[in-house]
Design brief:
Distance between the termini: 53 Å
Order of helices and strands: EEEEEEEHEEHEHEEE
Number of helices: 3
Helix content: 10-25%
Oligomer: single chain
Structural class: mainly beta
């Protein structure tokens, strides 16, 4: 039907400003997310004996939650009366699971709405900033000296073998990509996708293209009314992607262990294990 110039279905994604006013289709969207990051680190080394050294330290990671500096961001909330209280998606999922375990219905979970969000709107951020991201680390280096005997034959004379091991925690610097994805796909109320009802036009009354790149305006649905709090229609909305305000900073455990043995003056044998658990 398109080949002969007929247009039977039209879809549009409307974007809105923070006051709920629809923007003209194709209007560029400008978002300026800002946040601050900082780390403090302290380390010390203790030479316990001439051939045994202990190194230890701690890193403190502070990651501010990104927020849109003009206040053009929304978050999940529960509408009660005229107020919309911020709500964690993990709580919503817990209620839904309780309904399932008790033989209830998922529709009994609270209905979700979206409202202006973030510190530039004097509201809570996407997730709570953590102040307890302390990452310890410890390492040991030992050069055994057994003097004589069979252990001396295995490990060699003084200074021929080095045994090292370490453990640390690393907190990931995250947030930018997460917020960018939410901003482009999950900000209900700042964007709305609509389409005309398929099957409502026939060959006789289907609109035609008016030019090579011009679509008849009658096939494009008008922008839905904007404004906040925005509550999606229950028969046309599903949670497919979202941010949980209870989200924590991801981290990983790093472990390493190595044994180095000098075999000859120009040959060294080294055996190592390196592990990372996130």
């Amino acid at each position: 039907m398109t080949l002969v110039g007929m247009v039977t279905e039209g879809n549009a994604i409307y974007n809105y400003d923070k006051s709920g006013n629809p923007l003209a289709l194709g209007t560029p969207l400008v978002r300026d997310f800002r946040w601050k990051e900082g780390e403090l680190y302290a380390q010390d080394s203790w030479k316990i004996t001439r051939n045994l050294t202990l190194t230890y330290g701690v890193r403190w990671t502070l990651l501010q939650t990104p927020a849109e500096s003009d206040g053009t961001q929304v978050g999940v909330c529960i509408l009660t009366g005229g107020a919309c209280a911020p709500y964690s998606l993990s709580n919503w999922l817990a209620v839904s699971a309780q309904q399932g375990a008790a033989g209830g219905a998922a529709i009994n979970a609270p209905e979700l709405s979206f409202a202006p969000h973030g510190r530039y709107n004097r509201q809570s951020d996407f997730w709570n900033q953590q102040y307890s991201n302390f990452a310890p680390r410890v390492a040991v280096a030992w050069s055994p000296d057994f003097g004589g005997g069979w252990l001396a034959k295995i490990f060699g004379a003084k200074g021929k073998t080095s045994i090292r091991g370490g453990y640390s925690i690393f907190y990931n610097h995250f947030g930018a990509a997460t917020v960018n994805s939410y901003n482009s796909a999950g900000s209900y109320g700042l964007s709305s996708q609509v389409s005309n009802v398929p099957g409502t036009v026939s060959v006789t009354n289907a609109p035609r293209f008016t030019g090579l790149t011009e679509i008849p305006s009658s096939v494009i649905p008008a922008a839905p009314a904007g404004g906040f709090p925005a509550t999606p229609s229950s028969d046309a909305f599903a949670i497919s992607w979202g941010l949980d305000s209870a989200m924590k900073t991801p981290y990983s455990h790093a472990i390493n262990f190595s044994i180095s043995r000098e075999l000859t003056k120009d040959m060294l044998l080294n055996v190592s294990y390196v592990g990372n658990f996130a």
